[in-house]
Structures are given as C-alpha cells and as structure tokens.
Specification:
There is one protein chain. The chain has one helix at about 1-25; strands at about 30-40, 50, 50-60, 65-85, 95-115, 120-140, 145-160, 170-185, 190-200. It has one domain: Porin (Beta Barrel), CATH 2.40.160. The chain has 1 helix and 9 strands, in the order H-E-E-E-E-E-E-E-E-E. The radius of gyration is 23 Å and the shape is elongated. The longest helix has 24 residues, at about 1-25. The protein is mainly beta and about 200 residues long.
Length: about 200
C-alpha cells in the first residue's frame, strides 16, 4: 500500500511539474532583451570590455527545438590615451591626449536551437546581418570620425530560465563572439572582433 501511495505521489508530482513547465513549453514566440557587456579584441585602436550596450531579439519556433527570428543591438567602447607627441606631415608634430571610441550597431537574422524544453533552456544561436559602426578620435581641438558598414556574424551560447511557474517571464544569460568586416584604413582597423556577455529578461 505504501509503495502504491509513493508511486501515486510521484506521478502527481511529475504531472504537476510538467503542467507548470508547459507555460513556457507551449510558447512558440519569444522575446529577449537587456544589458550587454562588449569587449573589442584583436585591434590596436580600442581594446577593452565595457558595459555600454543593450540588445533585443525575438523569434518563432518553427519546430519545438528550432527557431528563426531577428536581432538588433548596440555597444560603445572607449579608451583614453595619455598625452604624447605625434608626428604629422611636413615634419610637424602635435602633443595631445586622446579619447578613442568605437560605436557598433549590428542587426539581422537569427537561428536558435534549444537543447531542453524545461524551465532551463540552454541554446545555441547564430546571427547574420549587417553592422553600422563609427570610430572616433577626440583630441583637444577637433574630432577625427569615420563611419562605415560591414557584414556581421556571431555565434552565441546561452540559457533562458523561467523560475516563475505558469508565467512566461524569465531571465537570459549568454556569451558570444562576433566579427564584422568594417574597415577603417585611417585607424588601421581591418575588421571588428568582439567578445561579450548578455544579461536580460526572457518573454
């Protein structure tokens, strides 16, 4: 009799948690958005990690595990260069400090594969699109600024977590690498490489 009661209780618990998880499992549409920390790497212009960014993305699960959608984000990375002397043309020189800035706005299409359909949903995502970027050097008396466009690609791994039963509100954490083909010969930039972290809400 006790064994039967234990089996009955275990079955009831499984049904209960399956029903609770179904709030997220039944959804085909998803929207994620929040804060982004972006690090520029593999260039001599600006190399640092800064939290001046945000993102939004959404999609539709065409199968229980595969979704397609779109994304947009932005990030700014700044670096201060202490005062030094720079040689100019005609043997002239200028002594100044610099503030360098890289502003990036990628957007495009996404494909996401999730590996579980529970409250915890680890996933892999690939992004492809375009990137608008501005690189600026602020000096004491003027600004040298370049705008350009490039092709953008980014693989990402992350997890969405829905802790509130019967509610489609949760959290997202992800890490990504991205590369954009933006070039700036004046600043010796031959592509923009980034590593980043994302922390946001999942709907």
């Amino acid at each position: 009799m006790k064994k039967f009661i234990y089996i009955l209780m275990a079955s009831a618990a499984l049904i209960f948690f399956a029903g609770e998880a179904n709030a997220q499992m039944g959804k085909r549409l998803y929207i994620n958005g929040g804060w982004q920390m972006n690090g520029t790497i593999a260039n001599d212009y600006v190399q640092n990690f800064q939290a001046y960014g945000a993102y939004v993305e959404g999609g539709y699960y065409v199968t229980p595990m595969l979704a397609v959608g779109g994304f947009a984000s932005f990030g700014t990375n700044n670096e201060y260069i202490p005062k030094q002397t720079y040689q100019l043309e005609d043997k002239a020189a200028i002594t100044t400090d610099l503030d360098r800035s890289v502003y990036q706005v990628p957007f495009g299409a996404t494909m996401r594969v999730r590996f579980m359909r529970t409250e915890f949903q680890p996933y892999f995502e690939a992004k492809v699109g375009a990137e608008y970027s501005t690189q600026s050097t602020y000096m004491s008396t003027f600004v040298n600024r370049k705008d350009n466009w490039g092709f953008y690609i980014s693989p990402e791994i992350g997890i969405t977590f829905f802790p509130f039963h019967k509610d489609d509100v949760g959290f997202q954490f992800a890490a990504y690498y991205s590369y954009a083909t933006n070039r700036n010969d004046s600043f010796n930039i031959k592509g923009l490489n980034n590593l980043g972290l994302k922390l946001g809400m999942a709907f």
